[in-house]
Amino acid sequence: MAEEFDEFEETELTADEAALLADLPELSELGEARRKFLGQAAALGLGAFALNLLAQEQVFAALETSPEAAFAPVTIENGVTVAMKINGAEKSLTVDSRMTLLDGLRERLELTGSKKGCDHGQCGACTVIVDGRRVLSCLTLAATCEGKSVTTIEGLANGDTLHPMQTAFIKHDGFQCGYCTPGQICSAVAMMNEAKNGEVSYVTSNVRTTAKNVKLSDDEIRERMSGNICRCGAYPNIVAAIQEVHSGRETAQTWNFHTPNNDLVEDKEDEKDATV
Ligand code: FES
Ligand code: FES
Predict the structure, then answer these.
(1) Cβ contacts of 16 within 8 Å, gap of 6 or more
(2) Considering only CA atoms, which of 210, 70, 84 is closest in space to residue 141?
(3) Which spans in 63-149 are helix H?
(4) How many A from CA of 127 to the centre of ligand 1?
């Protein structure tokens, strides 16, 4: 049988092997060199990062911001000055020619009522009224609004008096989280005008014989409001609110706040139960 191999047995180096080993740098030296290299690389990386930050700060400092600006714009390329009426007040803004009306309202004018849901024209959360018509502000370039009149949710109330559509949404509990609500209300207000002007929709039964002041059924309200998505599913209450404003037929409010008096009554009832 072959001799057993002892892995711990010391073997002698040949002269060539010993010479080769002597030429190699010490392992400890290798570790030192590696640490040094990593340290230098990190220092270089941080230096580049710091330089980049410094450059960005200089760009921000050089930018002129509107006194109404909520956030400094990153940069304005191809700036366009747009004058428009926003909620009844004349405004003049210099915006990047690619800036949307939604970003202009929210980021330059601090009108954050209009919401950015999808930013792709699919949810209606950004709906505002431009010259009496509802538009998706995420798909409207601010530069195209020169000379136009823009109404956002902030401009619907008259001082402390809410717009009837706002009141109806509260009365009918037409929202849950409220994210879609500014868009729903702006859309519904402009839709009232469409019905008044006799504009047709997909469910209009006869598009040849249209008249002014169209009476909208619940189905027609649903169809005309289908561009406004409510992720909370408050649709039945939204339709009820719009129908009340549209028809002028008042319906009873079906909910109420829990008042301290109610608590008192309930407490007394509890006490009565406890003594029986
Ligand atoms: Fe404009 Fe969704 S954010 S349609
Ligand atoms: Fe929440 Fe409509 S109330 S999305």
Answers:
(1) none
(2) 84
(3) 101-103
(4) 7
With the most atoms of ligand 2 within 8 angstroms of its CB, the residue from 115, 122, 179 to mutate is 179
- Output the CA 228–ligand 1 centroid distance in Å: 9
Q: Which residue has the tokens 């330089």?
A: 51
Q: Residue 97: CB partners within 8 Å, gap ≥ 6?
A: 77, 78, 79, 80, 141, 143
Closest ligand 1 atom number to CA of residue 117: 3
Give the whole-angstrom CA distance, residue 260 versus residue 105.
41
What single letter denotes the amino acid at residue 90? E
Percent of the chain scoring above 70 in pLDDT: 71
Interatomic CA distance for residues 88 and 16, integer angstroms: 94
Domain 164-247 homologous superfamily, CATH? [2Fe-2S]-binding domain (1.10.150.120)
Pocket lining: 123 vs ligand 2, CB cutoff 6 Å: no
Stated pTM of the model? 0.69
List the end-to-end C-alpha distance of the chain, in Å, as a whole number.
100
Where are the chain's structural domains?
79-152, 164-247
Determine which of 13-27, 46-60, 150-164 has the lowest per-residue pLDDT on average.
Answer: 46-60
Q: Which phi and psi (to 5°) does residue 91 adopt?
A: -130, 145
CB 153 near ligand 1, within 6 Å? no
Question: Token pair 């009306």 is at which residue?
Answer: 101
Angle between helices 181-196 and 235-247 (to 10 degrees): 40
Check pocket membership of 136 for ligand 1, CB cut-off 6 A.
yes
Cα 119 to middle of ligand 1, angstroms: 4
Please tell us whether the domain made up of 79-152 is placed in CATH 3.10.20.30.
yes
Q: Cβ distance 222 to 235 under 8 Å?
A: yes
